[in-house]
Write a structure and sequence with these properties.
This protein has helices at about 10-20, 25-30, 35-45, 55-70, 85-100, 105-115, 125-135, 135-150, 170-195, 200-235, and strands spanning about 125, 155, 165. The chain has about 270 residues and is mainly alpha-helical.
């Protein structure tokens, strides 16, 4: 099986395969490459709908050049913990960043979040992020401010008075609640527009339909987030039993109830 970097001709074959609706595995089989190679190539270069062979080839060259410059002090210079494959970790980080960008997150914010995602501690300092991503402290500060506004990170001072950024189990709960509140605000604003444009006018009817839909979505997001948090992130010792059994009657000195069915059947007297 051939190794090394993908050639421009191989990237053109990938683009043709995507255009024909082929699965990654089939494209990889035709190239005699691992499926993971094709998957990473596509996801880090726009995804299946936006992949362009020439752009992907140029972007790969730029990435390789950037990696060669900080190689001496880059994050991959030190061994990975737990015996992880450093190249596989780096590739996963790129794929994760690309997926976040496809969901609408700005590139630098996605890079910072992906970097936090893959740390065992779930936390890094600004200096550590600067070193890992090879960007300026101002860029990190701006990215963290955005992520914090979305409920995706929190900041604390450590014992050395350094500002440390954390990602924890409640990250997506907080983010969903921020989204729900923003949607609720949009509902309120939309309904103000109904009053201004007139409830019976075409524009007013349209806004009211939008408001009703978004109101439903906002409540559903908040409800699902609360339920998910209770189910997934409640420690066993803190959980309330769903069907708490009443205290045994005999332990309270009460007469035990007679065994057997107690409902009177047809043709029997109930008194």
């Amino acid at each position: 099986m051939p190794g090394g970097r993908l050639t421009q001709q191989e990237r053109q074959q990938i683009a043709l395969g995507l255009a024909d609706g082929l699965a990654y595995a089939e494209i990889a089989r035709r190239l005699d490459r691992p499926t993971s190679t094709v998957t990473r190539e596509v996801m880090r270069n726009g995804g299946p709908t936006a992949y362009r062979a020439d752009l992907a080839h140029r972007a790969t060259g730029h990435r390789a050049q950037r990696r060669r410059q900080p190689a001496a002090q880059g994050p991959n210079a030190s061994p990975q913990p737990h015996g992880r494959d450093a190249e596989a970790v780096r590739a996963f980080e790129e794929v994760l960043t690309t997926v976040m960008m496809q969901s609408g997150m700005p590139k630098m914010m996605a890079r910072v979040l992906a970097c936090l995602y893959i740390t065992d501690d779930g936390s890094l300092t600004a200096a550590e992020l600067v070193e890992r991503l090879q960007v300026s402290p101002a860029t990190i500060s701006k990215s963290i401010a955005f992520l914090e506004s979305q409920g995706m990170v929190r900041r604390e001072r450590d014992e050395r008075r350094r500002e440390r950024y954390f990602m924890d189990d409640d990250m997506w709960y907080r983010s969903m609640m921020v989204s729900a509140r923003a949607t609720a605000q949009l509902v309120e604003t939309t309904r103000q527009g109904v009053g201004i444009l007139g409830a019976g006018t075409p524009a007013g009817v349209r806004l009211e339909n939008i408001a009703r839909f978004l109101d439903f979505i906002s409540e559903a997001i908040a409800r699902a987030a609360e339920q998910g948090r209770r189910v997934l992130h409640t420690k066993p010792e803190d959980a309330e039993p769903e069907d708490a059994e009443p205290e045994d009657a005999e332990s309270q000195g009460a007469e035990p109830e007679p065994a057997g069915p107690q409902v009177a059947g047809p043709g029997t007297e109930s008194g």
